[in-house]
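Re-run with default settings, no changes from the original entry. Doing this only to confirm the output is reproducible before filing.
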Amino acid sequence: LKMNLQLFGINHKTSDVSERERFIIDESTQIFLENYLKDKFPNAIESFFGLSTCNRTEFFFIASNDQIDHIFRSIKHALDITEIPDSHFYFFNNEDAFIHMCKVACGIDSQVVGEQEIFGQFKNAYKTADELGLIKSRLRLYIDKTLEISKKIRTTTKIGLNPLSVSGLALNLVKKIFENPENQKVLVVGGGEMAKLIIESLYKSGIKDISAINRSIKILNITDTYNVMPMPLSSAHKALEDADIIIASATTSVPIIGKGAVESALKIRNYKPMLFIDLAVPRNIESEIKSLEQVYLFSIDDIEKITKDNFGERLAEAEKASNIIVHEVQLAENEINNKLKRASIKNKLSDLLKLFTDEDLLLLKDRVKTNDDITSLILKKAQEKGISESISDIRIIDNHAIREIVKGLIKNA
């Protein structure tokens, strides 16, 4: 059966944050899934990788079209997410999956249309899966082309002209709520890329009183002259008492800030208001704190709904980007198919040459040198060896390409 690009996932359009935080594919999930799927579907899945961001979780894989439903059900069961209704998932295969992948990587499928952080997240998810040995040639060709097309979209459209990012949205919200944000004390929860981007955008906008808490203690270098040294998570209670604004983006499976800690902090602050912005999926802050007086909590879903900056302009550019993607995908599909055909023929020729006698090889070398028809010689020899059936598709490649492949193989023989 022919193997094709497939994907399924949930995103901000189909599900809310409480569902998205249950379906997360990180490094440990990928390791678990590799073993699970190998056992459950031997030889049915060629390669895969998962992408989880605050907007979405998607599972990209190479398999035959008739397998997608079985694989989806098995993964739902294995990750214990059977409570998320099937109707909240979307499914794509073949060219549609490729188009969707490109739209995701360049940010036009995000809630904040054109946001730029997704490109890095996509690349990192790929790198993680690649380091785990999960990516084989066909999926690699699709991903490399997706990255290439996404870069082209960034340079040929104005999708990133007024770059909006999740960290930028947090700053917009702070400015909407506080008249003089530079007078407020900010606490950032987390120490990853997102936390650094948040601190950088706050600092550049004139907010200087910024502290951080994080699981691991490492200096966060923000500019050449400014850095932040996070406090350990055990300092969270004390840090909350001092903070007017708390922006969270840590990677964690359970909330770091609970209702009890916020209640204690409020008492000590004499009920001075606190703004919480939770950009993490899974969430860092217990949603129950919403019920407390003088506490304002925004999740990733809330914050993106209230931002409509130059929305019309970005939508028009997204439309343009979509058209470019469809065109580029068609060209890329042909290129990928040709590469795969050549790779397949190279493997078959390599196997055939192993059956050649020294005399056969000498004849072949002569043909290569003299630019004579090489294809008919190979087919004739394959017939003599009784394997002409398996190598018949050699005819789809021109004589010059066959010569180049054979040249390489003889050199290595």
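The longest strand covers residues 4-11. The chain has 15 helices and twelve strands.
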